[in-house]
Amino acid sequence: MATTNETSAQWRTTIIISSSLQNHDTCRTLSAQQHRIRFSDSVEAGAFIFPRSGTAFLLVDPQHLPEPLEESGLTERIQKFVQVHRNCFLLLYSPFNGKKELQVWAQIQHRFFGSNLKILPVRNGAQIAKGMLTIAKATSKPHVDRIRERMSLARAHVVETSPVWEMLKDIF
Fold first, then answer.
1. What is the DSSP string of 8-60?
2. What residues contact residue 13 under an 8 Å CB cut-off, 6+ apart?
3. Residues 65, 97: contact at Cβ < 8 Å?
4. pTM
5. Which residues pair with 143 in a beta bridge?
6. Range 141-146 contact pairs with CB under 8 angstroms and sequence separation of 24 or more
7. pLDDT tens, position by position, 80-128
8. How many CA atoms lie within 13 A of 110 on its CB side?
9. Phi, psi of 58 (to 5 degrees)
10. What is the per-residue pLDDT across 35-72, written as a single tens digit (0 to 9) for each?
11. Contact call for residues 18 and 42 (beta carbons, < 8 A)
């Protein structure tokens, strides 16, 4: 039987990546893992799209944003990204958590609270690749079906072994 590491190493997928990220470390990491990479000028700058799982990631580096965040155009970029992709993640790249990084994070969370945007803080290229691949794999078929089945079995097991359930059985 294959171990978890062996099965995750065998998983390959197609990734559409913004041409602006062509020389990014994460692209080299994904290529080294033999994923099929397609670069596109038509996707949002900084975007990674996993068509098979229906997930999209937008990489943002707070260090490269102009000082007043409102004037950077970031909010509009994220808003457009959220409207286009139903299952979207913001990769907030910050090798360290300085005041500016935390301020950007807080403003984005406040602005997009209640939307389908999920924020994933990352510190380096390896974390970017690992985070994206973990989420993309977990949301792609047949893996999502397997996860749902395991969750259902776990829930049934908890209910069956619950002392409260035993007490209710005795009452009725």
1. HHH---EEEEEGGGTT-HHHHHHHHTT-EEEEESSSPTTEEEETTTTEEEEEE
2. 35, 36, 50, 52, 53, 136, 137, 140
3. no
4. 0.76
5. none
6. 141/52, 144/53
7. 999 999 899 999 888 777 777 788 888 888 888 888 899 998 988 889 9
8. 6
9. -120, 120
10. 999 999 999 999 999 998 899 999 998 777 667 666 67
11. no
DSSP at 92: E
Structure tokens at 121: 């803080």
Q: How far apart are CA 45 and CA 66, in angstroms?
A: 17
Q: Is 55 exposed, middle or buried (0-12, 13-18, 19+ CB in 10 A)?
A: buried
Q: Give residue 161's identity as a one-letter amino acid code.
A: T
- The strand order across the sheet containing 36-40 reads 36-40, 14-18, 47-50, 55-60, 88-93, 117-122
